[in-house]
Amino acid sequence: MQDKRTDMLVEPQWLAAHLNDPMVRVLDCTTYMIAQPVGASLIRSGRPDYEEGHIPGAQHVGMVEHLSALAAPYPYTMPAAEQIEALLGQLGIGNEHHIVIYGRGHIPTVTRAWYVLHAMGHRKLALLDGGFERWQREGWPVSRELPSFAATRYQAQFDPRKVAGLDEVRAALQGSGALLLNALGRDQFAGSGGAHYGRPGRIPGSVNVPARELADQETKVFHPTQHIRTLFDEAGAFRAPRVLTYCGGGIAASTTAFALEMLGHPDWALYDNSLLEWSTQPELPMQMG
């Protein structure tokens, strides 16, 4: 299994040296999520903060308004390939470009952007480790200029195996061999605290690797590879032929998906609508404790 950390995480120094590289495109994916006691989080766009200052050359893309399905029963559903093709084409991004994604605050909203673009087949794709906070902390340049690039044509190559649905999760409960991996906090996993999405707890048989334990919550820098690998090994992720990661609405689970890809797991998917779908259907089982 190949460790892809150096391909998937870039340092501020690297990005600063490539800001004028015509083959690099930078996306500010800041989106703020305000957790609610029950159900989906409230969403606040990061666009106003982007306009106050961003990495030079960066364009803003919102998790909900740009990277989620425009009409779906759940709020963060994977969009159609045509929606992403239109978006990236308008932003002047082609299949050949190296896309670097960053954000402020909540890492999972940034990894969700990574997940959507990864599932659409874009492979030259990385996160800025430490996000905008680290960029500012280290004194790299900030701009208020709104960049514009000539429109181009983008062709998505959607990989349906990166998106798990309700039927595949049911099959895992019936012994398909796939491992269900919950990315929520440990209290939410146990059903003893935190927000829930219809009913507290988890899908039966799940293991837990909280997304927030994969990175330092102060610096927004991902933990060393071996530390992350140990968390997954303790959960049995690398003994499973396929991992289905999930959370409340498919956002925190994108961080565990990112880490699984970074560590070279050969077969994973994200249960896209997660507990917003599962826990609101009373005939489907939930487990606590």
Task: Describe the 3D structure.
- The chain is α/β, with parallel strands linked by helices.
- The chain folds into two domains: 5-159, Oxidized Rhodanese, domain 1; 161-278, Rhodanese-like domain (Oxidized Rhodanese, domain 1, 3-Layer(aba) Sandwich), CATH 3.40.250.
- It has helices at residues 5-8, 12-17, 47-52, 81-90, 107-119, 131-137, 166-173, 186-190, 225-235, 252-263, 274-278; strands at 9-10, 24-28, 31-34, 42-45, 59-60, 98-102, 125-128, 163-164, 179-182, 207-208, 243-246, 268-271.
- The strands form three sheets. It has a five-stranded parallel sheet with strand order 1-7-6-2-5. A five-stranded parallel sheet has the order 8-12-11-9-10.
- Helix 5 links the parallel strand 6 and strand 7.
- It is globular, with a radius of gyration of 18 Å.
- The model has no long low-confidence stretch (mean pLDDT 95).
- Catalogue the unreliable spans: none
Shape: globular
Q: Helical amount among residues, as a percent range?
A: 25-40%
- CATH topology name of the largest domain, in short, is Oxidized Rhodanese, domain 1
CATH superfamily of the largest domain: Rhodanese-like domain
Percentage of residues in strands: 5-15%
Tell me the radius of gyration: 18 Å
Compute the number of structural domains.
2
Structural class, by secondary structure, is alpha/beta
Write down the secondary-structure element order.
Answer: HEHEEEHEHEHEHEHEHEHEHEH
The total count of strands amounts to 12
